[in-house]
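Researcher: Go.
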Amino acid sequence: MRLEPPTRSMDGWKADLPASRKRSKAKRDPCGMQLIQMSVSNSSFAAALQQQLERHGDWVVVRVDQPDLSLDGVIIVDDGVLEKIVSGLPHPERVVLISRNQCGLLTRAWEAGIISVVFESDSPETALLAVLAAGLRVPMPPALPSA
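Model: Structure:
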């Protein structure tokens, strides 16, 4: 049985992350691993999605109460978190919203620039596809000069 990392604020994680994970540095580490911050209140869905992500990709998945928007990588949020971060959301193309199928919520997400939306009733496998697409939209760092 695999234990999930505890959910905590991003402040504690930011200090633990290498400089390559911070926005001012490279977008990905040399091994190609990408940070995914997940702030989803449905713990069983979050655990299933995290399991899918770890099985099918080279990501560092961190479950947080509130995502740190200054860090690179994909951000997975639900409706409750979206309401807190929607104003001034940098790089909304990297956000995946797990949402109820309600017109007002979807309108706010669209107006914020979020293009990856998965409904709460969808499977974690469907959410995985949205995360893969969002990951492709995260800018890559410039190539290192060859020696």
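Model: The domain at 32-137 is CATH 3.40.50.2300 (Rossmann fold).
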